[in-house]
Specification:
CATH superfamily: Macrophage Migration Inhibitory Factor
Number of helices: 3
Number of strands: 4
Number of domains: 1
Strand order of the largest sheet: 2-1-3-4
Distance between the termini: 24 Å
Oligomer: single chain
Strand content: 15-25%
Order of helices and strands: EHEEHEH
Helix content: 25-40%
Length: about 130
């Protein structure tokens, strides 16, 4: 963990490089120093149907959700939230200056007792470092 999901209105693809945003989020999460690199997953999905504010189709949104395995104290989570959100805000700032765009972010804990995991990414990362 963490798993970062970007939910966005489809019109955003006309003026934001969403794949680039995913990479920015991955790097920002890693740079916090408190989220394990091997556990970072970033995915993005355009909503099929949206209706925003007054219904004007020019409006768009980017909503970022971070699901994080429990165990980090509140101050650590607040710092990570601020750092990742700021990276997203800076990346989207040019688009926000010329388009009607809302950016939101939420980090939430996952109960580790109810979230089993397995995988080999860490094993393959070690092989690449040798």
């Amino acid at each position: 963990m963490p798993h970062i999901t970007v939910d966005y209105s489809p019109n955003v693809e006309g003026y934001v490089d969403v794949a680039g945003l995913c990479n920015v989020l991955r790097l920002a999460a890693a740079q916090t120093g408190v989220l394990p690199l091997a556990g970072i997953r970033v995915r993005a999905f355009a909503a099929t149907h949206v209706s925003i504010a007054d219904g004007d189709t020019q409006h768009g949104y980017v909503d970022i959700a971070v699901r994080l395995r429990g165990g980090r104290d509140l101050e650590t989570r607040k710092r990570a939230t601020a750092e990742i959100f700021e990276a997203a805000r800076l990346y989207l700032e040019p688009a926000m200056q010329t388009h009607s765009l809302a950016l939101s972010f939420e980090m939430r804990d996952i109960d580790p007792d109810l979230s089993p995991k397995c995988g080999t990414i860490r094993d393959h990362m070690k092989k690449a470092e040798q």
